[in-house]
Amino acid sequence: MSTLHFAESLRELVGGVDVVLSDIWGVVHNGLESFPEACEALHTYRSRGGTVILITNAPRPADSVQRQLRKLGVADETYDAIVSSGDLTRLYVAEHPGRKMFWLGPERDNSIYRGLDATTAPLEEADYIVCTGLYDDETETAEDYRGMMLKARERKLTLVCANPDIVVERGDRLIYCAGAIAELYRELGGEVIFYGKPHRPIYERAMMLAGERQGHMIDRKKVLAIGDSVRTDLTGAREFGIDCLFVTRGIHAEEFEGLDQLDPKSVMELFGHPPKALMRELKW
């Protein structure tokens, strides 16, 4: 299939869908403000018996993500549960007691090891790296960390990436995320473990929580993913075997100008395999 289906509303797509796995940043908010129509769409779907699990590459535990959502005006009733790449990273840290961690990321992400028996250490003494982002994502790029990553590679340290996103929206700008550093490290020959989309563990955790709320195992044919990234949301959904609604207002907005006029070859170059449907912004 190389044609694109443009949907006007979520209601067109959720007949027979028991579970929605929705991205957060770029779909529900842009880092500075929430999108009221998107929140209303998810709430309405829930009110009609559907289950909404928010899946995010945020390098923080779910409770920290929830606090941020509340500050941005996203009501708890918008969703049933949150699964974050930060949660999965915390499991890795918990499963490696006694090993020294070099934490690379901004101070706001320190909840990644809150409550864990984790010993932090300088790069020269660490047993592995946990990367939650850049120290200053307002001014830095991954290239600013090339020297550090070369030293890490020399020590053959494993880098655990708590956010596979390369970039994310903040207001009307794109800022670099942990995924940019992780990809640089991988290019340099370093070993990287990714938690979050498009990798399976975050989907498996989300499906488990959805099953608990529905009271039965979830058929993947009755699941719809929603996201705004080809690399993480669309690829992750396709590889996990679920349909995807692609929101074009997010990080790929400029690429999608005139999208309705693309020829099949251009569609394949942009998406690989097109999503189930596209929508500029999520609404009911």
TrEMBL record:
Keywords: Hydrolase. CDD domains: HAD_like. InterPro entries: HAD-like_sf, HAD-SF_hydro_IIA, HAD-SF_hydro_IIA_hyp3, HAD_sf. It holds the Pfam family Hydrolase_like. One of its GO terms (molecular function) is hydrolase activity. PANTHER family: 4-NITROPHENYLPHOSPHATASE-RELATED, OS08G0542600 PROTEIN. This is HAD superfamily hydrolase (TIGR01459 family). It comes from Bradyrhizobium japonicum.
